Amino acid sequence: MPDPHPGPGELLVEVIASGVNFIDTYRRSGVYASEFPHVPGAEAMGTVVALGPGVEGIAVGQRVAWVDVLRSYAQLAVVPSARAVVIPDGVDDASAAALPLQGITAHYLAVSTYPVQRGDTVLVHAAAGGVGLLLTQLAVSRGARVIGTVSTAAKEALAREAGVSDVIRYDELQDLAAELPAVVRELTAGTGVDAVYDGVGRATFEASLGSLKPRGMVALFGAASGQVPPFDLQRLIAFHSAYVTRPTIGDYIADREELTWRAREVFDAAAAGLLTARVGGLYPLQEAADAHGDLESRRTTAKLLLVPPGSPLSS
Questions:
Q1: Distance between CA atoms of 297 and 122, rounded to whole angstroms?
Q2: Which of 146, 202, 220, 280 is deepest in the core (most CB within 10 A)?
């Protein structure tokens, strides 16, 4: 494709790495409507190489990151300056690429969707995944006890390293919907958890509801195992006035002020060593299909990145 050029209020960025996320697979597969031909990707970081007219506060040569900007699987990307955030010097390239979507997602979940309070107990599904590891660290830093679910011994080790106090292994349960809530209640003296952060979806949703204490909340922020079927709200009576919400990142970074606040807190925590972004795999940009396949098969842990030819991360 020809090199793009920035228009008014836009940046031209030489991409160092693009994030691979489940939403990319949803758009590629048609779960979310997309126009074709389609350039995947909505998250990346890189170095500004040109400015369009009217750009202020960002200079050529600075590193910037973004999320929820389409056409990000690329060597050169045009990014609205209002959607770009400058990366602090204390954050390395790989961490800066791994943090925007999943770091901001973890932030809005723990700070805004269900604001974690000291003394809370929360359940994090896929605790060794990209969001799960970051969400666990944020919840623990806010004084919560985190129960995490994982599928392998290796993932259990990662989750515990992030701060999970109790691990439930999917692979050791025969009937997830019945057995997982029973284990959660055993771990919580019969009360259940204050909130469940569920990015898995179809396979875990019933177990999430069953794990709540009265008036607890399920924050269903993803569907790694498939979309949750239509749900009868009358059923919430049986779960003691439970709350269910389906948050999406666009509603939590809808304006520049909120975007920069969340990004600043995430990047500052990373620069201070309080939040660690783990990269689970670096793929050449031309192997994006392999990255999607590995992500969808749930063979991976932490964050997957695509690296264009010539990137500092490609060596």
A1: 26
A2: 146
